[in-house]
Design a protein that fits this description.
Elements: H1 2-21, H2 25-30, H3 36-45, H4 63-76, H5 78-95, H6 101-111, E1 117-120, H7 122-128, E2 136-141, E3 144-154, E4 162-168, E5 174-180, E6 186-190, E7 203-212, E8 217-219, H8 221-265, H9 272-294, H10 300-325, H11 335-348, H12 353-366
Parallel strand pairs: 1-4
Antiparallel strand pairs: 2-3, 3-7, 4-5, 5-8, 6-7
The structure holds flavin-adenine dinucleotide.
Length: 369
């Protein structure tokens, strides 16, 4: 039953990708077109609600189905797949947050795509790995907390949108919270031009004494560490799906190039068959890990290893697609050119490839395989 529903969802998304997204992919990349209607459409189709069990009004199709949906999007446009991940990450955070009435209402709106948002958690995740200080400070006040500081990059933002973030109190304790972009004290500023992912509405967020009421606290200090431990594996797995989709897009480009230049292309490294086999192995692992992550039974190193392997495969596949396409792939309008930038984004977005390798190394030292 679930399998038939999952297939029906993926068919709806495939159709939406072909009809709505594929024709816009170049404009999203080169003219910073923000694919708002597409993101809302994915909500209408039921993509984000796959994460929610029936008691939360979802379909219960699960993380593996959401990942397949994000990957379908990513094969056509990495930026839109990343935005779909941002949205799904917010849904996942709220699903595991303290059960508060206001958060439950917002959860339903996010899952349906009626409201959009992004996770501003790179800083907190890097902080917990010992890589940088917390950028946001929280001061307790009679109405809740006042938050100040700056996050240099948060995607999927805009008027009416939301973002999740974390801040440190004076005693070093941390809390996670959800903010409306329109809340007094929140400023969204465009940063310097970026090499790719132009349509992701990635903005620098400044918070000046922003009031967070108890209803908007996702995890109070006492629950913070457990909350991050609970959500991180699913959060990272869903992000890996963006990379798996980009690899599929590279394979599509290679196939198209081989129809033209197959004889010469067989001299290249990383052939279609080799990359497709590697992709299948990573998908098998992802599908094994997804239900474990949802059940809270997945230890971090296994998912970090998969996420690192996805980054590495993305880089190899994108370079290979460019070489297979030859001079055609050097045209700015060619998808292989765009995918090079999408693939390098997968390796530099938190958790970055360098952070993943460091964390895996540290985990192996404390717990030899
Ligand atoms: C397109 C895009 C979208 C993103 N979306 C999100 C999001 O939705 N949520 C989220 O929490 N994070 C987001 N990020 C941030 C991302 O996850 C990483 O935290 C960020 O790329 C820094 O990674 P790093 O660990 O390599 O940085 P570091 O190792 O800290 O930095 C590497 C080098 O880059 C420099 N550097 C770091 N940041 C900047 C900057 N803003 N400007 C100039 N130089 C800099 C550092 O000084 C250092 O020299 C996004 C980043 C990008 C590029």
């Amino acid at each position: 039953m679930h399998q038939a529903e999952a297939l029906a969802l993926l068919r709806r998304i495939d159709q939406r990708v072909r009809q709505q997204l594929a024709p816009q992919a170049t404009a999203i990349d080169q003219q910073a077109l923000y694919p708002q209607a597409m993101l809302r459409g994915l909500g209408d189709d039921g993509a984000y609600a796959a994460l929610l069990p029936a008691e939360h009004g979802g379909s219960g199709l699960g993380l593996a189905t959401l990942m397949a949906a994000i990957a379908e999007v990513g094969a056509a446009c990495g930026s839109t797949a990343f935005l779909a991940w941002c949205q799904s990450a917010c849904v996942y955070l709220l699903l595991h947050a303290a059960p508060r009435a206001e958060l439950q209402t917002i959860l339903a709106e996010l899952a349906a795509g009626r409201r959009l948002g992004g996770p501003g958690l790179s800083n907190a995740i890097k902080h917990l790995a010992g890589l940088e200080p917390m950028r946001l400070r929280a001061e307790a006040c009679p109405q809740g907390y006042r938050i100040s500081g700056e996050l240099p990059w948060v995607s999927n933002l805009g008027p009416g949108h939301l973002f999740a973030a974390a801040a440190a109190c004076a005693d070093g304790d941390k809390l996670a919270f959800l903010v409306d972009c329109d809340t007094p004290g929140v400023q969204l500023n465009a940063g310097p031009p970026i090499a790719g992912m132009g349509g992701t509405r990635t903005l620098c967020v400044k918070l000046d004494q922003v009031l967070i009421t108890p209803e908007r606290v996702l995890a109070e200090p006492a629950a913070f560490a457990g909350f991050i431990r609970r959500v991180r594996p699913g959060f990272v797995l869903a992000q890996a799906a963006v990379g798996l989709g980009i690899v599929q897009g590279c394979l599509d480009d290679i196939l198209a190039a081989n129809r033209r230049d197959g004889e010469q292309n067989r001299w290249l490294d990383h052939s279609y068959d080799e990359l497709a086999a590697e992709l299948a192995v990573l998908w098998r692992e992802a599908k094994t890990l997804a239900p474990l992550a949802e059940a809270g039974q997945l230890a971090a190193p296994r998912v970090l290893r998969l996420r690192a392997e996805v980054s590495e495969l993305c880089l190899r596949a994108a370079m290979s697609a460019q070489l297979h396409a030859g001079a055609a792939g050097y045209l700015l309008s060619h998808p292989a050119q765009r995918r090079l930038r999408e693939a390098s984004f997968i390796a530099i977005v938190t958790p970055t490839l360098k952070q993943l390798r460091r964390e895996i190394h540290l985990a192996e030292q404390t717990q030899p395989a």
